[in-house]
User: Fold this.
Amino acid sequence: MITISIYLIVIITEWDYSSVIIQLNKFISNNLTSNSGKNFISNDELMDILTDVLSLTGNDAIDFLNIIQSFQRLQFLFITLICYNILFTRINLAKLESFLSRFLPLNIVRWYVKSICLYQKSSLIFLICMIILLLFCNYSSVYYLGFYIDNFDDIVNQYSKK
Assistant:
């Protein structure tokens, strides 16, 4: 990252902006082609990231419960995003524009209303995606929790022998 910033400073001081874009594009494409056969993230780094994100301890039973809890947190996030989406799709743009025009300049109000209008047009796709993800998290959570409850006696017996 430091190399890129130093490289950009040198480029900006020597050439105009159009040549800066050309040089930056050349620099990025050279780095991508030279690193194309290499992994950007190793398996050890990936496992460290997953361990930190999912709060894995190394104990299989507790890790399994942590994953179920992560699915339930994701359910809460998706429900919040769905409610947020529904809230923005129900906004009356004429009333919003008249309300905001009292406090903000007209060009900012028009830009904001235009962006909300675009969001309302694409909100159905977003809503469908969030519902599908919510259903997946719900199914995974229920399925794995049911598996854990059904096999609880075996899990307790396995860990009591250790």
Residues 1-18 have pLDDT under 50 and may be disordered. Residues 20 and 26 are 10 Å apart (CA to CA). The longest helix spans residues 106-150. The two ends are 48 Å apart (CA to CA).
